[in-house]
Amino acid sequence: MAEAIAQEPVAEGALPPLFRQVRWWILTLLFFVTVINFVDRLTLSYVAPVLKDTFKLSNTDYGLIVSCFLFGMMIGEFPMGWVMDRKGPKFGFSFAVIWWSIANALHAFATSKFQFGFLRFWMGTGECGNYSGGVKVIGQWFPVKERAFAMGVMNGASLVGNMITPPLIIYLMMKFNWHAAFLIPSLLGMFWVFFWRYFYSNPDDHPALTEAERRYIKRDHELETAAPRSVELLGVRQTWAIMLCRLLVGPVIQFYLFWLPEYLYRTRGLDIKSIGYFAVLPPIFGDLGSVGGGAIAGIMIARGLTVTRARQAVMLSGAAMCALSIVVVTAQSPLVWGAAICLVYLGHYALSANMFAAVSDLFPNNAVARVTALTGIAGGFSGWLFPILTGWLVDKVSFTPVFFIAALMPAAGVVALFAISGSLRRVEV
Q1: Mean pLDDT across the chain, nearest whole number?
Q2: Whole-prediction pTM value?
């Protein structure tokens, strides 16, 4: 066992000024890479109406292409988590971002559903590293009371990506063509890697980190122990609890991210430009949910509520808002169904910020990336099946049953997490 980290309290006034606190700069880098991740991920959604008309793709074809991406995420999750845990986030993030950026750029040269499906699979095997790496970095760089907030900021970056993707991609398509919509954003990832390689180091090695901030970060970290083996992680019920939660929660927002433009275009009758304008709004609410959900949980914990109760309160409230998916598909007024979409985003991201933070609540930091990867495999499995089911239901029935299913899954995931895991206390592996 390595030498235990000193646990003496650190007065927050002893910390350097906010702009010199390194952990917030690390979080800024995580924020930007997550924005890039989601711009690359969502480009297909806004190019989809053009691709479907150009290459004569059915809803079932499109569903299969989307499922290839999520299947790739499922397959890549554990290898990426292993790389993040064993090789470290500096190498792991660099590899993942370059890997998925190349795949995204090559979409510009695809000409069939099989080629798009292969490239989406390739891209998914890299993009899954964003969250396993991000959760690990946050576990290293933030004390417990700040982790949900930090996770909320990172999670909120996905909404910023969601917000800027429609105008960016539609502008590139109108200014150039759909090929440029894949090529140009892919360069952003390569640019980010340069800054990551230059600035990132672990807290124990970072030259710009003051001793006061290092003690503040480490004051409630677990004692450093030997990393548990992966098979040991599968032997505890808490791993399966968080995996089942993500299996049920994850496909819902993936459905909104990949199918909402198509739903608005085919069912609600919006044109591409109108979809671009509307699509900016839900991510704003998602950001409020992501950052707010993390901050509210942190405030509850700081005021004496247990971690378990704080996470439960926020996650159940988020699941209740996700149930408004029923309103999205049944309401006639654009004001009502538009507001329901926004509240679904708010609820989902408040829930998921605390779901990811729960991983670092339950597991030692030297296992966090692999557990997050295992949850990604579970989410990838359901995410792989759900688009296929969606495409089949839309072709055979309508969007209505899909929205009803999406309304119920988040609540089931939250109940499963706490019913199986019990309290969110550190697991002895």
Answers
A1: 83
A2: 0.69
